[in-house]
Amino acid sequence: MTARLLLALALLVAPAPAQGDEDPVERYFRLARTGSAVVRPQAAERFATLGAPAAERALAAADEPGGLAGLGRELVEVLGQLDDDRLRARLWDALGDPDFPWRPAATRSLASTVRADELPRFVDLLADPLAAVRASAVGAFELPGALDDEATRRAVGERLLDPDDRVRRVTADLLDRRGYHQALAWLLEDLEREDRWFEVPSGKLARYEVLRLLGDRLGGRHGYDPERPADDPANAAALAVLRAAARERLGGELPAVPPIARASADGGDEVLGLEIRSCRRGEHFLRWTADDELWVGRGNAARVALPDGASTRLLERALDGLEPLGDQRSWGEPGCDVEVLYLRPPGAGRARALRVSKGPEAVAGLRPEALDAMLRELLASLPADDAPDDPRLADLRARVSAALDAVGGPLAP
Amino acid sequence: MVAPPAAVDASAPAGARASVDTPRGRGSHGPVALSPNRMHRARARAALLLALLVAVLAGPLPADDDDDLDEVSIYELTEITWRPGRPLPEEIEALDGERVRLGGFVALDTPEGSDVFRMINDSCGCGGGSKIHHFVEVTLLDDDTGYRPGWVELVGTLSVGEEHEDGFVTSVYRFEAEYFVEKDDWRR
Fold first, then answer.
1. Where are the alpha helices (DSSP H) in B36-169?
2. The CATH number of B64-180 is which of 2.60.120.20, 3.30.70.1560, 3.40.50.150, 2.40.50.870?
């Protein structure tokens, strides 16, 4: 007992290992790779301020077996700040590899430190299969003069038709700040969104993001409250003022936004949903509604009529087929590859979510057979048209199948 | 071929062209002294547990009253523009110490069975989640997370303001959660 007491006292009075003894490059490198989730980005930012020694450390680590991917997302995201040609070359090489797990971070890393001669490569990234890469690539065109070239301007402007609302928003924000004020119409439209993804108020999130992007550009919020719906009298009045301010900024009438960007109030009728986020094969958001429609995407979703009773049949198959899984709701380890099946039978207070997830490495046998069988049925209900009117539906079944392959593994035949 | 939008037609635009090393969670802290903030949390937890005990002994908890609690939007908290050392917006500061309902997602990297987790505003953390003001650090006073992949709601007390550890900001928002607001998710 006495010995334990003495040991405890010794531990209390002994000097703690001085963090100052560790070389800052090594300390921040270590913490940026293995620190807690909240420390890693801060450590990475500090690492990026350390100049040439930090660049050499990153290059040495990139030559290890894990390669650039082994540095982790947070370090990849700041490597561009080190202004080292060799690291930039490594980042571009990584972006050319569809299996590199941190492509969005690599894009942000390069875009935030873009060089004029790299702009054509960023134009290519605007058409990347990953929405997060496209959104990050838009940032490269912040470079003064980047939009002077008409073809480049057109390529950036086409992102206003992007199927992903985040890409449309950052594009509209950039264009407005660069003097193309027609793009304000896209931002103001988002202030009218009421859509939901099951319980998630996705429209409200869009409203908040737009207000953050706009800042004081239109003279403030004018009383608009994103917590309240757009048709709330105070919000409707505020929107009228915001629109007038936008017209004044533009010097004319705002254009009508295309259907893909129009505000909607979709949500509430879903009984089944499938959310796939593959860090290699992109994202898919699919819902099957009680009145037999398939909704593809978020916001103003593309709609496909399903045969009568299709949703109910699929839901019943899911409820029966997934019963053997019991209360287990998750398989695998956290990572950037995620597939989530949502079930919300009529009368349920909220959706039940069953999640399969993993990191960069393929994991054999990850998805349980019961879930595999259900996903096969959902996949079979998707259109396989290769030239539909709405680009969100093009080759939908094949694209969703590829994304599922990349996350939980190939579906059994 | 997608037609270029009007906003970027060839016509000229209007205007100018112008313990820090390990993930947090139960069992991850090791035999270190509690930081002042953790001691504060521990004291608050003990006080709340005592209050709950007294309330239980005194009679049934007025759980229905919690339906009337103000809801704080995780979007309101996480969609601010903030930099370390800078003040938070006044309306956010005003929430400090308030007992409220809060909804969001349990961050994907939460160890199962943890009593501390980051609450974020999307299911994957794609919208951020690792920046300090993009999450609320939730401490479950009498529960653990179990596995909750969907949207969750909690009742508890919100604290607002920077916390530091080993030279890093570790949180801006903290929430001492009394309980999950449970709703049926499965009916036949």
1. 36-58, 74-78, 90-93
2. 2.40.50.870
